[in-house]
Each structure stands twice: as structure tokens, then as C-alpha cells.
Amino acid sequence: xxxxxxxxxxxxxxxxxxxxxxxxxxxxxxxxxxxxxxxxxxxxxxxxxxxxxxxxxxxxxxxxxxxxxxxxxxxxxxxxxxxxxxxxxxxxxxxxxxxxxxxxxxxxxxxxxxxxxxxxxxxxxxxxxxxxxxxxxxxxxxxxxxxxxxxxxxxxxxxxxxxxxxxxxxxxxxxxxxxxxxxxxxxxxxxxxxx
Length: 195
Hints:
Elements lengths: L8 H12 L8 H19 L8 E4 L2 E4 H11 L5 H7 L2 E4 L6 E4 L10 H14 L4 H9 L2 H9 L7 E2 L16 H14 L4
Antiparallel strand pairs: 1-2, 1-5, 3-4
């Protein structure tokens, strides 16, 4: 059974605010999703957990954090869920472009993320923040985790679930033993879960 993490709604919003508050050029929904992916992956392979706990789907343009993607799509319509309204209160949308762009109305609150979360986000933006969505998509298409999931989808499927275990493949920054520890922790959590 694949490794799973608990979605942390507060961290999805805090991560979005952090990215939107850093003046990332051309911050569209697609680019936001790629930056969240790179930050989650960075943190997972070094610390044994992603930042947001979101699950990832391999889609045509690369990995997509499922919950965050749905939440941002909701922003482009009238937010209906409490989470959508919460994000709408802090994220500003500029619709003067073919693809709407995002910025923030709120100051980033350092208390909402751990030091390692902030480090992962900072390093992600340093490495990928100035790249275009097309460049980020091309980079993710070369990753083993994406490739394995994309090739595993059914013939008429538009997406396939990515496995967190595969995020460690081909990543020079992965800490020795982090993959094994992540899998072991997940097995223990599932073994002791209440029925």
C-alpha cells in the first residue's frame, strides 16, 4: 500500500501565501502547483514528510497537488467551501491576463510553517521561481516519480496517483535512509490506526 500523509489545510494556505508573497513572476495556477510540488518533494526527501500532506496526481502537464489544485480552481469561481473562502481572503487574483495570476493580500506569518518548511520553500523559489510554467512542466516530465505514475494510468485516464516513495528516485538531495524511514513510519501509522 502506498505511503500516505495527512492533508494539512493550514499549511496548504500558508505555503500558498509564502509563494504568492515572494514576487514570483507570472504566478499562474499551473506555476503555483508546480512550486508547491517542488517544495513538498524537497522537504519529503530531506525530512521524511512533505509540507502540505497533499496527494499528487500525474497529469498531462506534470505533477499536481490534488487538494490545492481544486482549491485554486475554486478561487477562479465563487468560493463555496470554507477552505475556499479562507484562501480567497488572503490570495488576490489578477484577471487582466489570459491566465489569471496570483499574489497575496496577507503578510506571511512565520509561525504557520516550521523552519524546515520555510527552508524548503525558500530553496524551491531560489531554484525554480523565475522559471516559466512550461520550463517547470518540462523538468517534472523528466522525473522518475512522474514518469512511473503517468505510464501506469489506464488507457482513457487523464491522471494517475503518484507514489511518495518514488519522489526519492533520482534526487541527489535525498537524505540517506529517508525513503526507508518514511515507508516504515507509514507502515507503523497504519498498523496502529484505530479500525
